[in-house]
Amino acid sequence: MKKENIAIHSTMLIPFAVGGVQAALTLGVQKLSVISGNPVLGKMQEFLMTLLMPGMFGAMFLADNVHAWNLCVAAVVNGLLYFGAAWGVLLLGNRLMRRAREKGVS
Fold first, then answer.
1. CA-CA distance, 95 to 88, in Å (whole number)?
2. What does the DSSP 8-state code read for residue 28?
3. Among 46, 50, 22, 21, CA closest to 34
């Protein structure tokens, strides 16, 4: 594969992986909601729940109901949100690396 093709594939593959992992974690949120007694695992679970909250808020917004919302909708919202964020970060990083190479920095 050419170097350009590898860059294009990684620019799409990484965001799909990030979005997919976040969507899968959202579907498994019921297991994460019971905080472990182990302090390290408990903090990791709290951090993961913080990352999953935007999708849950999005599902609540789309359902127009705070008490009854679909977890699948939250997974889709999280997947799309984190796909877009990872894609934007990769595009920005690639652009900055290209500019640095053009200027001869690295």
1. 11
2. T
3. 46
How far apart, in whole angstroms, are the C-alpha atoms of residue 54 and residue 3?
A: 36
What are the CB-based long-range contacts (under 8 Å, 24+) for 47-52?
A: 51/22, 51/25, 52/22, 52/25, 52/26, 52/78
16 CB neighbour count, 10 Å cutoff: 13
Whole-angstrom Cα distance, residue 93 to residue 74? 28
Ranges of each domain in the chain? 3-103
In this structure, the chain runs to a length of: 106
pTM score, whole prediction: 0.80
Contact 60, 69 (CB under 8 A): yes
Residue 7 has pLDDT above 80, yes or no: no
Cβ atoms of 23 and 79 closer than 8 Å: yes
